[in-house]
Amino acid sequence: MDSLQIYADNSDEEDLSHQPSTLSADSSPPRLIPSKSAAPKVDDTMLALTAAEARQAQSRPIDPTQHVVAFNPTYDQLWAPTYGPAHPYAKDGIAQGMRNHKLGFVEDASIDSFVFDEQYNTFHKYGYAADPSGSNYIGDLDALQKNDAISVYNIPQHEQKKRKIEREKDEDEVDPTEIDNPATDVWLMKNKRSPWAGKKEGVQTELTEEQKKYAEEYAKKKEEKGHKGEKGEHVVDKTTFHGKEERDYQGRSWIAPPKDAKATNDHCYIPKRLVHTWSGHTKGVSAIRFFPKYGHLILSAGMDTKVKIWDVFNSGKCMRTYMGHSKAVRDISFCNDGTKFLTAGYDKNIKYWDTETGQVISTFSTGKVPYVVKLNPDEDKQNILLAGMSDKKIVQWDINTGQITQEYDQHLGAVNTITFVDNNRRFVTSSDDKSLRVWEFGIPVVIKYISEPHMHSMPSISLHPNTNWLAAQSLDNQILIYSTRERFQLNKKKRFAGHIVAGYACQVNFSPDGRFVMSGDGEGKCWFWDWKSCKVFRTLKCHEGVCIGCEWHPLEQSKVATCGWDGLIKYWD
């Protein structure tokens, strides 16, 4: 072992003796030999600049306006988005158009902004929110169960009521002194102005002379126009007497009935032949009325704006013409004794005339077209006028005072007829709304309303002489019969048909003994039906065009007058 140890020591010494000693004082320092190159010396500053420029060109985007590119751009450069000029005040350098958030540009998320706000506010109030990635919830699940998973925008019903009550309580508790004090929040809440409130402040208050003049002219014109539209058109009333003399040798008026005029017998017969024609109207005749009780005169309303009265018994000529309307006359109606009559025209006027002298006693107008005029048939109520108007109302006037005393306003269309029933205590009206309404006279409340899906408009209604039945001309070419008793029931067993009246307001009428029903039609015929059997008894070809009106003579039981749109009035026996 000792020999091995000696051997190891000797080998270490030998190694040390082989290595040159750098620490010895006598050894010389190492020498570096400079390298030499045979190539000439070159200035490479420009080369470095060119390389840097090329690198910069590769990194910067291409200007879309330049036509020539001096280098080969990469794919990324060609498809890079267009950069605008850097914002001078923005640190991140985002163009102004791209900025949609205070921190820069934010892309649209897949979640709707309303949904996000709802869940954001729900989380802050209740502690839970719906997870947009799935159908589960995150946050406080106990609160979720307790609140039944409602969001802040789904306020429960009881909560809404509570809020409303609280709001009303707050309004009630407001101190009135606080409302008047501009320093309080209450005053601010009451007087806060909308964003548009200040817009009116610039309006000038003083008008110039020119503007004042224009305003006055405009107001004047409007007043004239309103006045004209409100009332009917004004026409000078004129009348012409065509007879020989207004009074005979005994001093009797020309309208006085003959002393011997009385019914020859109670049995009515159907007329067969034409006995007289009255011609004088230049346009169609819209209505005719015999003088009450006696029928010695017949009154006619023309579409030529004139109303004429004709002699029936003697000369058969026109006795007087009444001119007071500017448009066609729609309806006429005698008072009980025939000394006065009413006319209704399309010029929106209703006129009350003296039959004998032709003077207009009074004029009424509401600014609407009257379609039907009637006086109350009671002797003590002859001063009460009812008119069915185009504005769906029935207007009641007192003729003595000229005042409107009542308005019956329930119909849904223009009023066509007014018929008094039940000893004149009630009246029935028909209208374009295809209904019948029964009114208590003087009370504007409907006591019976008749409207069926199969009903048509009824432009003419007539009362049977026994006052128990109403005959209504229906525009589906039939005459319907209604009872005037309490229930105003339709009598299904009585129905008169065969004539064509669709589209025309052809008048329906009864013979004085109630045995016959008659009506004009759209083809100029006059139809007669038997009341009991409802069968057609006879038809007469009366007029060219429409036969609009027909009246049975009150005394001479076999005589009938008809009028048509051909301008003629014909008398049949």
Automatic annotation (TrEMBL):
CDD domains: WD40. GO terms for biological process: mRNA splicing, via spliceosome. Residues 169-178 have a biased composition (Acidic residues). GO terms for molecular function: mRNA binding. GO terms for cellular component: catalytic step 2 spliceosome. Residues 18-27 have a biased composition (Polar residues). It is found in: Nucleus. WD repeats lie at residues 278-312, 322-363, 408-440, 540-573. SMART domains: WD40 (SM00320). The keyword Manganese does not apply. Residues 1-39, 159-179 are annotated as: Disordered. Pfam families: WD40. The keyword Plastid does not apply. Keywords: mRNA processing, mRNA splicing, Nucleus, Repeat, Spliceosome, WD repeat. Gene3D superfamilies: YVTN repeat-like/Quinoprotein amine dehydrogenase (2.130.10.10). This is Pre-mRNA-processing factor 17.
